[in-house]
Design brief:
By secondary structure, this protein is mainly α. The chain is 74% helix and 0% strand. The chain has a single domain, classed as Up-down Bundle (Four Helix Bundle (Hemerythrin (Met), subunit A)), CATH 1.20.120. The longest helix has 33 residues. It is a multi-pass membrane protein.
Length: 195
């Protein structure tokens, strides 16, 4: 119950970021009277791949939850035999996919700073772009840390209990939430102003 309440507060936080984004977008006018938005050459193909990987990580995370609920912590077959995977393998894969997403976002930031000169303080667009995507990236990083804690518990626990399975489920709630928020951000930032 506490997780749901906390995620509700996170929803309000991201709703405020969306409100900031749309407010600044609506009042930012260029020198010639046109909207100076988006103000950067965003890498849609990279972001689309990143989005796909993050969304698929929700699927792998949920597969881990199914294994956690059935008490299957580790695999009982070869590593390439995906049907025999347990919670650990699915959560490691989810972790790697999330880490790839964060690395892709960092690469895009580097590209925007070096190629377009877009920084947090360079323009209103830079401010809202980095605030919205940056706070989301921090939340993804928090989810990655949570995956590591759950994985650590699978090795530290002498036996797998309902409480440990519940911790895996709670982490999945958070991960699914972060993924849904990104879908909204991707649609708003990358697709709304598509030229």
């Amino acid at each position: 119950m506490g997780t749901i309440v906390w995620l509700s507060s996170e929803l309000m936080f991201f709703a405020a970021l969306f409100a900031i984004y749309f407010t600044i977008r609506s009042v930012t006018i260029g020198q010639d009277g046109s909207h100076a938005w988006p103000g950067a050459d965003l890498n849609l193909p990279l972001s689309a791949v990143n989005t796909t990987i993050l969304v698929l990580s929700s699927v792998t995370c949920q597969m881990g939850v199914f294994k956690a609920e059935s008490g299957k912590v580790g695999r009982d077959g070869g590593l390439l035999n995906v049907k025999r995977w347990g919670l650990r393998e699915w959560y490691v894969l989810s972790f790697l996919m999330g880490a790839y997403f964060v690395a892709g976002q960092a690469y895009e930031y580097y590209s925007l700073v070096t190629k377009d000169g877009l920084t947090l303080s360079s323009s209103a667009y830079g401010t809202v772009f980095y605030m919205t995507t940056g706070f989301h990236g921090l939340h993804v990083t928090g989810g990655l840390i949570a995956f590591l804690f759950v994985l650590g518990r699978t090795y530290a626990a002498k036996r797998w209990t309902h409480e440990q399975a519940t911790s895996a489920v709670v982490v999945s709630y958070y991960w699914h939430f972060v993924d849904v928020v990104w879908i909204g951000l991707f649609a708003t930032i990358y697709l709304l102003d598509l030229h």
